[in-house]
Design goal:
Oligomer: heterodimer
Strand content of chain B: over 45%
Shape of chain B: elongated
Number of helices of chain B: 0
Number of strands of chain A: 15
Helix content of chain B: under 10%
Strand order of the largest sheet of chain B: 2-4
Largest interface: A-B, 66 and 32 residues
Largest sheet of chain B: 2 strands, antiparallel
Strand content of chain A: 15-25%
Order of helices and strands of chain B: EEEE
Distance between the termini of chain B: 37 Å
Chain lengths: 368, 42
């Protein structure tokens, strides 16, 4: 704003020097001046964010973990109509661009967010708008799937935030040091997360014989989805061998989700929550970030048992598309006020499920 | 955007002798199709 004020002062000075005849020329200078100021401001903000990210990464390399610190900005975010802002962003990025302009815009995007343009399936001028470019498919063979039958592959391109085995009562995943969230809240209260009650544990901490795991060994394809159990997550703990992995996708990453194994999806849950940013800073400052955001959970079974994938949207990349259910839409205006933990569910082929092979595409994120 | 996976995988229980191990570290960049973890007979 000080830059614009200086511009205005300079324009007025020039106008008075020219005896008032420079007014219209001054106005015409103001618009490009404001544009330059906006671009400069965005550049400074981007540089500052990169500097902050670098500092956090350096601290992590030194073994210093960032801690949960709620702040004023995070509180203000809650007051903003984030879903509407996200949809506006989606609308803006859907505006068709002139063909000559497309390569410049997409190259600038790729430079800013470290995308690999040589992997794009189509020439740059074929993507009519930024939204189409963002959700671009890759050339055949760009993502070879590990052929080892005893391996579980990454469903996305991204950065590993956390992973490990789920143990202990409550089944919590650490969002950041000092704050954890419950897996049941993330996946939904009606999730088939394999748990055992505390009373079913023997002295060694192993599950008693009649656990869901043992039942699964006898018949893991046969699962009843008709009567979800309501469990007390505090007095129960996960069966042995329940793992999790949290992967963050940067704006420049390939935003399609693929099957990590051969599996059957039985149910899709859609939680139409808010749309906060989900970057490093947000994980440190926004409580329950992942379980308050809009998300889609796909749940089913693979040869070793339970499998669930939660795709969590963000303000800039808010909509989630499902090639396995093309009519599904997310990030729509909410018709009624639902509790963030209330999900809209759909069963795929009740009792049979939808079979997917390792590497098959199951979902994609899109802008706005 | 973020993706969270929750899954069961082999661990040593009773007569089972295979165990799942993650093959990644925190902060690693990973791409679709690359191994997150493997299980092997012990």
């Amino acid at each position: 704003s000080s830059f614009i004020k200086k511009l205005q002062t300079a324009t007025q000075a020039r106008a008075s020097f020219n005896g008032g005849s420079g007014s219209s020329r001054g106005d015409s200078f103001l618009v490009p001046g404001a544009t330059v100021a906006t671009l400069l401001m965005l550049g400074v903000l981007h540089a500052r964010r990169m500097y902050d990210d670098k500092k956090v990464e350096e601290a992590r390399e030194r073994g210093i973990e960032s801690e949960f610190q709620p702040d004023f900005k995070a509180s203000v975010l809650r007051l903003l109509p984030l879903r509407s802002i996200s949809r506006c962003w989606g609308y803006l990025t859907s505006v068709e661009m002139p063909v000559w302009l497309r390569p410049y815009v997409y190259r600038a995007w790729a430079r800013a967010f470290h995308s690999k343009l040589e992997e794009a399936a189509l020439p740059l001028n074929k993507y009519a708008n930024l939204r189409e470019f963002f959700v671009r498919a890759l050339k055949e063979g760009c993502r070879p799937i590990d052929p080892d039958p005893q391996c579980l592959v990454s469903p996305v391109d991204g950065t590993i935030l956390r992973f490990g085995e789920l143990k202990g009562p409550g089944v919590m995943i650490e969002q950041v040091k000092g704050f954890s969230y419950s897996v049941a809240s993330l996946l939904g209260a009606s999730s088939f997360l394999p748990m055992v009650a505390e009373g079913d544990m023997d002295e060694d901490g192993d599950e008693a014989e009649n656990t869901p795991m043992d039942k699964r060994k006898k018949s893991w394809w046969r699962i009843s989805l008709s009567s979800p159990k309501v469990r007390d997550s505090v007095s129960s703990r996960p069966v042995k061998g329940l793992f999790y992995c949290v992967i963050y996708l940067k704006p420049g990453d390939y935003h399609h989700i693929h099957s990590p194994v051969d599996w059957k999806i039985f149910i899709r849950r859609h939680f139409s929550g808010n749309l906060y940013p989900v970057n490093e800073r947000a994980t440190r400052t926004i409580r329950n970030l992942y379980i308050e955001n809009e998300r889609v959970v796909l749940e089913g079974l693979w040869q070793e048992g339970f499998m669930a994938i939660a795709a969590i949207g963000a303000i800039n990349i808010g909509s989630i598309e499902l090639p396995i259910e093309p009519e599904f839409r997310s990030n729509l205006p909410r018709k009624k006020l639902l509790h963030p933990e209330t999900a809209e569910e759909r069963l795929y082929e009740p009792g049979i499920g939808m079979t997917l092979r390792k590497g098959d595409e199951i979902a994609a994120f899109n802008m706005g | 955007s973020t993706v969270v996976m929750v899954f069961q995988a082999p661990v040593i229980i009773g007569d089972s002798s295979s165990e799942f191990k993650f093959s990644i570290k925190r902060g690693d960049k990973i791409r679709v199709g690359e191994a997150l973890g493997r299980w092997r007979e012990q």
